[in-house]
Amino acid sequence: MDRRLVLLLAVTCGVAVTNLYVAQPLLDTIASAFDVSSSTAGLLVTASQVGYVLGLAFLVPLGDLLERRRLIVALLVIAAVGQVGSTVAPGLAVLAAALIVVGVATAVAQVVVPLASSLAGEEERGRIVGTVMSGLLVGILLARTLSGLIAEIGGWRLVFAVASGAMLVLAAVLWRFLPDAPPPVATEGPARKRYGALLRSVVTLVGEEPELRRRMWLGSIGMAIFSVLWTSIAFLLSREPFGYGDGVIGLFGLAGLAGALMAPVAGRLADAGHGHRATTGALVALVVSWGLLELGGTSVVLLVAGIIVLDFAVQGLQITNQSTIYALRPDARSRITTAYMVAYFLGGVAGSTASSIVWGAGGWDAVCALGGGISLVGLLSWAWFAWSAGRVRGQAAAEG
């Protein structure tokens, strides 16, 4: 696969996904601007993630049915329009509604990832997916940093205006340079019937593939943990003993760049047949990270260390999950992505909502208890999956 095309797809994912995260370091500022509580402002994260889940459920499957270059460009234009609405929003409700629209269109990133998987050869798929996901992860992390810096210069509304412009520029570049990408599914019959059958087939895939169900569960755990941290950390950093402004809070996103470095490594491990070990290591690291984050409530060094370990683990888990599920049904990768990412971001919705509530009730200690508890559930679930699989293999060997 041409390296320039891989780079273009990685940049596309990175720029597109910033839409979901630019509001996070601004939550305390937006709460003050609209005179609402921190917990209420935290629901803006939930709004964008709800929109994203809707996009994953109803738009991403179209990647198996429609020409994908046109689909990708159209979704980027819709995201740009939604960010215009965010820029001029007169109140929190309108801002939340605009972010839902933006979230729906930002599902374009998950049209790009299975496209990259389809274009890659069998022997390089894990590496290519890992590289494209690295772009996505860098976008997630830099979104917070750039958002905070732009807000320091021109206020929080300028952040959304810049995001809108970036979506339009990206749409124009992709229209010019992305090759035609015909769908992998036959397109005979009325469009409505094909689309309905496509959505039903997502449910069928989940029922037929136990490994997909397992990875959906682990993915939802990982995203819930990620959202628990990043929904509440702006509140922690804006108060004593830290007392940082938007710009400094945004810089903490750079601590998670270690997670982006993990993506290609995890992809290579999956290509080499070590996905099980990589998954185990990631889940153990998640548990450890929350111990560091708890201690980081009064120590910036330990807080940064906890962020690095958590992002490293979450992204390693994500890449091994995706490398595993994309090997299941080569002709249905967009629909597999839909099933997996809907579960993934439902976990994110639950995590961000719970984090906002728990922060209001018990502060940082309660947030860390929540994150650590979810991490333990993930590790124990993985141990149960491994034990069950071993038992099934043992029974099959005995019967054979």
Q: Would you give an account of this structure?
A:
- Helix content is 81%, strand content 0%.
- It has helices at 3-17, 27-34, 38-58, 68-88, 92-106, 109-119, 125-154, 156-177, 191-208, 210-237, 246-251, 257-271, 275-295, 300-326, 333-399.
- 56% of the residues are buried.
- The model has no long low-confidence stretch (mean pLDDT 86).
What fraction of residues sit in β-strands? under 5%
Percent range for helical residues? over 70%
- The whole-number mean of residue pLDDT values reads 86
Number of helices: 15
Q: Please compute the radius of gyration using only Cα atoms.
A: 20 Å
Q: pLDDT under 50 segments (min length 5)?
A: none
How would you describe the shape?
globular
Alpha-beta content class: mainly alpha
Please count the beta strands (DSSP E, at least 2 residues each).
0
Largest sheet: none
Instruction: Report, as a whole number of angstroms, the end-to-end distance.
Output: 42 Å
| Series of H and E elements | HHHHHHHHHHHHHHH
